[in-house]
Design goal:
alpha/beta; two-stranded parallel sheet; globular; 6 strands; 219 residues; 4-stranded mixed β-sheet
Length: 219
């Protein structure tokens, strides 16, 4: 995005220090931040465009409206807020090789923590509830973990989802092992079999994008 819009200044925020340090356009900066630590350290109307994504595994259900209100605050009048979340990232049911289904276990754990795994369906409602937002739109796209080999773009996206799935479940390895899902020496095999099963079934992930414009002072 920094290369496509060279006259802009782009600020990326993540809770972990995963940002590239050197290979990036000069108009792009990264900082470590926690969006649950409100208020955010930015003045009202600081940004023309705010994009937030893939927090559905981290935020509790009751926090979403609070966060969205804060994001609207830092968007300038006439600017845009866009959100994107995924749904159905986890595969339910048994696995042909008999290993534990990490997706089923993960969903149960997230629900127990108060996480709304279906928040993607509610984004438009959350944005519509903000009186300062208008022109609200939503778009959902379906991506398969096993597209036809002739679908070059689909194959690239499937690999990215496979890698993201491995990272997401791998990040919860300690929690899975604490629940006695498997022995540590069996972890790599169990994770690999889960990902293979998702590809075998042609598991589909739904990506929902929702955006709205902040009203100008004349509206």
């Amino acid at each position: 995005m920094g290369s496509d819009f060279p006259k802009s200044h782009i600020l990326g925020i993540d809770i972990s220090p995963v940002q590239p340090g050197t290979v990036k356009p000069k108009n792009v900066d990264f900082t470590i931040g926690d969006v649950t630590n409100l208020p955010l350290p930015y003045a009202d109307g600081s940004f023309d465009y705010v994009h937030i994504r893939l927090l559905f595994l981290a935020l509790k259900a009751e926090f979403w409206p609070v966060l969205i209100k804060e994001l609207v605050r830092i968007v300038r009048p006439g600017g845009y807020l866009e959100m994107m979340e995924a749904e159905n990232i986890c595969m339910e049911g048994g696995i042909s090789t008999g290993v534990p289904n990490l997706g089923t276990i993960m969903v149960a754990g997230l629900k127990a923590r108060g996480v709304d795994i279906h928040v993607a369906q509610k984004l438009k409602g959350y944005l519509s509830a903000q009186p300062d937002l208008t022109d609200i739109h939503q778009k959902t796209e379906t991506l398969s973990m096993a597209p036809h080999p002739s679908d070059v773009d689909g194959m690239k996206l499937a690999k990215m989802m496979n890698d993201d799935g491995a990272a997401a479940m791998g990040g919860l390895k300690g929690a899975f092992l604490a629940k006695g899902v498997c022995k540590e020496e069996d972890w790599d095999y169990v994770l690999s079999e889960n990902l293979k099963e998702m590809r075998r079934r042609g598991h589909k992930v739904y990506w929902t994008r929702c955006w709205g414009r902040k009203r100008s002072s004349e509206e």
